[in-house]
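User: Can you write out an input/output pair for a complex, sequences first and structure second?

Assistant: Here is one pair. Inputs:
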Amino acid sequence: MNMPISNRLLAGLLAAFLIGGCKEEQYTYGVEDVLVQPVDLSGKKSKTPEQYLNILYANLYQKAMSANQLVKATDVITSIGDKQVAYETVISKFMNDPNIILPTEESMRTDPEAFVKETYQRFFVRVPTEAEKTWMINFINSHPDVTPEHVYYSFAIANEYYFY
Amino acid sequence: MKRREFLKKSALATGAITIPYILPTGRLFAQTGSQMAEHVVLVLFAGGVRHQESILQRYLAESQELDIEGNIMYNMLTGEAPELKVVYGTTPAGQQPGVQPISRILQTPLDQQGTLFPEVRFSKAGTGHFVGLSTGVSGHYGVTRGLRQRPVHPTIFEYVRRFTNAKATDVWFVGNGIGNSTPLLNHSEHPDFGYRYAANFFAPNITFGSKGVEFLKGFKVYHPDEELVPIREMQAFLNNSFNLAGKEIPHLYNTDEEKADIKDFIRTTFERLENNQVSFPPVTDNGDLSTIGYTTEILRWFKPKLTVVNMSSVDSCHGSYTSYLKSLHRGDHAVGHLWNFIQTQIPEMKDNTVMIIMPEHGRNYEPNPITDENDWFAFDHDSDANSRRIFTQMVGPNVPANLRVGSELNPVGDAADTVVTIADILGIKQDVLATGLVDFNAMSLFDRI
């Protein structure tokens, strides 16, 4: 059976289209997929006692700790087996120092959102999630006796603060 | 109790869930053997004690070629003190240095009260301090372990906590300092044991010394209800976010109540220091003696099931034989004070505590070329046969009195035995041996008698 030339041409074009159609142009821009999580903590490493103390001191006193103080404070941390106990005790010693620089209670109460954001940024070097921000603001608003010192202490003894 | 109420409230407030921890042994009642005593105190008379000046009581006769013998450890050993060239004591005003021996504390020396193994061997590994201490607390010679590494094999602290279900504050390691990786000896890296069974640790000369005064003394005590409850609630919230990654500040599985108790102890000890109430030995003029003084405070406060304390001042023998003699004499004074304190000041531990004393290793037979102010030669510890000679002394309930086991020609005991011996005293010997993780030659010293 003879197929007309026009039909043969059509069949050829159709075959070429089908074969060619399987190859879709792909563009690569060098951007890899990233799993977006609310708080990505997976890559964090623990601070050494020196790092922890240095950063803590800077956060609380807003100036650097002297090398001499750092060596002594690190020795004290090393001299206590339970690091949670050691850090909590050193932090609460700092909290008893009148030279510590803390936000005023008035500023915390006047604008708790700004206070919470600033505290997360200061201690965890990140912005809080909406859920974190909401919880902290609600907590501050519902606890009239809570002071900025209490909030700072809580952040300083939180596990996240020990990692960077 | 107010704190307990606070903790209950805090737990309720934060919604914290405490999952009861089931011992990996799978037993409800962990202990399998019978206890000889409820408390054990191990004194690691460390730093490298030469056998000649301790057990053999040769004083200057087998070190400086001077024919003067005598016992400068008369709280621990029976024997007369040297009468000539006395340099190991204190220095009264206007007199020769060290001329006044320290008065004995124990009227009956410990070798008469208990059992002495005069010829124990540090049989394997080099005679270094860290490996010696590590062997003393793990019962395993860590021949390949360097500094800044925890023991690979479990320590006696971990065995005691795991097999007796002891709390963290039931088990204490008191270090003479933080050098030589001493703080790493409170637990091993063993995957089945490790930090969850660790001992609490203090290097009290630092914790309560000038550095501690600067960074700990006067720390703020938050009100348990009005301040700590909201603080813990915020902390729990912050940790809940972070715990997604399973990371936390290193700790030793002290409960919240135990942590508060440790803080109370720190605060109280500073107060007692200020009021001269810390029970330091009558003469306290070196680090070992103050370490022992703080140890008595720990014993008085926590009444631990197991306490290990290490001393190290005798290591001055690398450069000064005179200083070594002084330290040896003071080490004996420290041990006498410690035993006397337990028997007279802690009713809960009196007649219910076995104390074990052991150097971590010995010292060389031959001196090095360094001479001191008396022109006496110093001694190192380079793993010669003499530096492998040590002793072990035990005293307390169920320990035979006035017994010597072994001799130079018939050595009995090994440095690795101490762990099994402590396990035996606390009724967990079979559990420890069944792990297969102590030296294969290690035995309870009670089984060697």
